[in-house]
Amino acid sequence: MTATTPPRYDVVAIGNAVVDVIASCDEELIDELQLNRGGMTLIDEARAEELYEAMPPARELSGGSAANTLAGLATLGLQCAFIGQVADDQLGKVFRHDMRATGIDFDTPARPGEPATGRVLIFVTPDGERTMNTFLGAGQFLPAAALDEELIASAAILYLEGYLWDPEEPRRAMRRAIAVARNAGRKIAFTASESFVIERHGDDFRSMIEEGIIDILFVNESELATLTGESAFEAGLAAVAGKVPVLVATRSEKGAVAIAHGERAEVAAVPVMKVVDTTGAGDQFAAGFLSGYVRGEPLTRCLKRGAICASEVISHYGPRPEADMLKLMEERL
Q1: How open is the CA angle 279-26-307, to the nearest 5 degrees?
Q2: Are the C-beta atoms of 318 and 61 separated by less than 8 Å?
Q3: What pTM value is reported for the model?
Q4: How many domains, in total, are found in the chain?
Q5: Confidence tier at 1 by pLDDT (50, 70, 90)
Q6: In this structure, are residues 138 and 16 in contact, taking their beta carbons and an 8 Å threshold?
Q7: Which range of residues forms the domain containing residue 281?
Q8: DSSP 116-178
């Protein structure tokens, strides 16, 4: 369906509402705690408490993949809104404040009682690699009833994160949101998030791709291989490119590729003096890309925006921009 009314928002996202707890550590601690180095592992509240006690001094910053992307988009001047579930607790209040302070509309009511607001315990080794351990908390109980369907229908793009596809209740909510957005003639953007999510729900994702439900798909090299079963990057691209209007595949230091309506573009990674923390790199790449896409910019320029945003966020701790991103774009584009 073609949209009949101009969008109020550029992007509305549904995602995990979590607070990131980030600490530097040595390789030995990763082994000692038996963590999945460089990956993301879902944990329960007891394990979250155990890991928190074992962490070195940490920074606490609002995070969540889709929320991070919105934060990047907001700093680039786009109008955004977020749908996600926090608990009625202190971390929930912190998350809500941080979103609104960034200029993002966030009005999903807090959930009373247990469980607590979600958190991600992130261990960063000296090479900048992050190992994430996620307690979803209240976020995994986002119900379809909490959706503001008028809000969803008013956005040019509905952006969904794969991480939240794992719990059953928010998965139902996202399916409903997809139907609302498509009925309104809006675009659906989807980030696969992590290979383990694809391993669990790949049939769902492949079905959505085959049915033409996803308009913009974000994956990294590993996720593309898991999704397609093709170990060779080019073979993976070929397996998906004709099935989604816009495919964006990131390759860390090897740059990124996008294929849109038969057009292919590639960019190199933007070099940084020192990689401090890779948390949020993919989230901010998506923000940069979408900031160009909604403005109708050429594909290569959209990729360049993504690369600039990713390079900024890996140069400091935390998953959200710290620099003046509009100024950075002016200098580097």
Answers
A1: 25
A2: yes
A3: 0.90
A4: 1
A5: low
A6: no
A7: 9-17+64-110+140-332
A8: PEEEEEEEE-TTS-EEEEEEEEGGGG--GGG--HHHHHTEEEEEEEGGGGSSHHHHHHHHHHH
